[in-house]
Amino acid sequence: MPKNLVIEVRDFLSLREIVEDLEERIAQYNLMKEEYSRELGSYLRRTEEKYKDEEWFKKLSLDKLKGGAKKKEKKRGKRKKGKASTSSCWIPYKGLKISSTDQGEMELLFEAIEELERKIELLKGAKEGVEELMKVGLGDDLRYRVYIKEGVPEKIVVRPRGETSRFQLSMVFSTAPTPPQP
C-alpha cells in the first residue's frame, strides 16, 4: 500500500530516479485497484440474486461492466464527482458518512477503484512529462526537488548538485544500564 503523505517534498539526483519512483507508485496503485476490483466483482456475484432488481445494484453492475464508457464520460465532464456516496444508505455523522448496508460497502469499493484509476492516470501523465524532460537532455549533474501532492508530482525545482545543502547528524546511543542512584 502506498504510504503517501498529503504533501511531500523529495529530492532526486536524476530524472531516471523520478521515473522509477513514478513507476513504483503506478504499480502499487494498479495492485490496489486489481485487489479492490476482484473484491467488488466477488461481492457483486455473491449478492446478485438478492439485489438484482434494485436500481442501485443495476447501476453498480453496469458501471463495473462498462469501465471504458465511464472514462469517456469522465473526460467530457458529465459525471458528477462523489455521486455514489450520496445515496440514501449513507448517514452523515460529524463530517463522516456511515453505512451498514451491502450497497454502502459496494459503493465504497467502487469509489476507491475510481479514485485509484484517477491517480494512475495522473501518475502516468507525470511520468510522460519527466520522460520528455529526459529526451530534451536535462542532465544528471542536477538535483531535482519535487513537490508531491497526494502522491502525484506537481512541481519540480532544478538546481545544480553543488547547491545541495547537506548536514550530518551524529548521535550516540547506549544500552548500558545506568548505575543505581544512592
Largest sheet features: 3 strands, antiparallel
Mean pLDDT: 78
Unreliable residue runs: 68-85, 166-171
Task: Round the Cα radius of gyration to an integer and report it.
Answer: 23 Å
Number of strand elements: 5
Report the total helices. 4
SSE succession: EHHHEEHEE
Structural class: alpha+beta
Q: Largest beta sheet: what is the strand line-up?
A: 1-4-5
Rounded to the nearest angstrom, the distance between the terminal CA atoms is: 52 Å
Shape from CA axes?
A: extended
Helix content: 40-55%
Strand content bin: 15-25%
Describe this structure in words.
The chain has 182 residues and is α+β, with helices and mostly antiparallel strands. The protein is 51% helix and 16% strand. The protein contains four helices and five strands. The strands form two sheets. The protein has a three-stranded antiparallel sheet with strand order 1-4-5. It has a two-stranded antiparallel ribbon with strand order 2-3. The radius of gyration is 23 Å and the shape is extended. The N and C termini lie far apart (52 Å).
Q: How does the SSE layout of this entry go?
A:
Layout: E1 7-12, H1 15-51, H2 55-65, H3 67-76, E2 91-93, E3 96-98, H4 102-135, E4 142-149, E5 152-160
Antiparallel strand pairs: 1-4, 2-3, 4-5
Helix pairs in contact: 1-2, 1-4, 2-4
